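Model it.
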Amino acid sequence: MISDAEALDIIKFKLSKNRFNHSVQVAEMARQMAETCGVDVDKAYLTGLLHDYAKGISSQELINIAGENNLIENEVDALIPDLLHAPVGALLLQQELGVADTEILQAVKYHTTGSTFMTTLDKIIYLADMIEPGRDFPGIERLRCLALRDFDTGMLFGLESTIRYCLDQARLLHPRTVAARNHFLQLLKV
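Modeled.
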């Protein structure tokens, strides 16, 4: 497994300055969230550092890599290629850096769309990505409060915030995000 120092060097070289700073903030937030629930804080921090590993790759290259590796699961993946940075990132972490930890790879894979079967680490990375201190959007303070109190409630609010944003911007909704939202809504109503 790569060390935090190695990961920092890699993402500093690979990502823009803003994206690097974002990744460090996500890692710090992920560590803080992991401390509250018994998740391995070192793993959460490393996953936060690496979550945007493929963010600097062009849309066409993301489509090419995803297509060659059967990562395109539905038409929305090809129509919104930026979302592919998550599954492509998980693949490249495995291929280029030798990351074999399936928990890290899954958390990276689902950090943009969510999923109906998220682990606690998956939820931490998804939420840390949304609530890190550099983020600012309507509802962020409520999301921060909810996410730090209860991951499932935070996930529902975060997914609904994403869906609301996409609707307001007349953007396509990813089916996995809709399914994840419905999953957390049902989970919390039981």
